[in-house]
Amino acid sequence: MNQITLKVHSKLDSKTPLNSLSGVFGFLFRVSLFMGFD
Question: CB of 23 within 8 A of CB of 15?
Fold first, then answer.
């Protein structure tokens, strides 16, 4: 999980704070969906 978080943060570094927030929430939402399906 830590590796995934680091990769996401490194990708969001090139985006604006607002886009980073939406990206993080979208990522967490997808993760929660995968957890629910699994």
Answer: yes
- Judge residue 10's burial from the number of C-beta atoms within 10 Å of its C-beta, 0-12 exposed, 13-18 middle, 19 or more buried: exposed
The sign one gets for the Cα dihedral 34, 36, 37, 38 is positive
Who's near 13: CB < 8 A, 6+ residues apart?
Answer: none
User: How far is residue 33 CA from its own chain's centroid?
Assistant: 13
pLDDT per residue over 5-25, tens digit each?
A: 667 666 655 555 666 677 788
Residue 32 DSSP one-character state:
H
Residue with tokens 């943060």: 9
